[in-house]
Amino acid sequence: MATILVADDENVVRATLRMMLEDAGHSVLLARDGNMAVEVARVQPVDVMFCDIIMPEKEGIQTIAEVRRLRPQTRIVAISGGGRTHNFDYLQMAQRVGATKVLRKPFNKKEMLEALDVCLNQGA
Prior knowledge:
Blueprint: E1 3-7, H1 11-23, E2 27-31, H2 34-43, E3 48-52, H3 60-70, E4 75-80, H4 90-97, E5 101-104, H5 109-121
Parallel strand pairs: 1-2, 1-3, 3-4, 4-5
Helix pairs in contact: 2-3, 3-4
């Protein structure tokens, strides 16, 4: 069982990921924005973080970079549905700052679990 942090400003995304991850046997922590995600990671080691790119308060790129500095062993899956990404691929940028995997919304449970499996089976 892994401890997983889900950082997304959309309630339905957080709730859906939580349900799928808990059904797979994992412990899930939630954050509604980047600031909250960084604070959670500061006090609680997590194995994997799913992080939305477009969020209020603190964008996903900055959140990923900060969590990577705080917890270098944490694997990160960057997720995005597009939003402002039509001119620049923020998911590629997320990989450059430390995301292990990226997922474009909408993604299905199989895709999410495959990304999680890669993260959990990759050495720190």
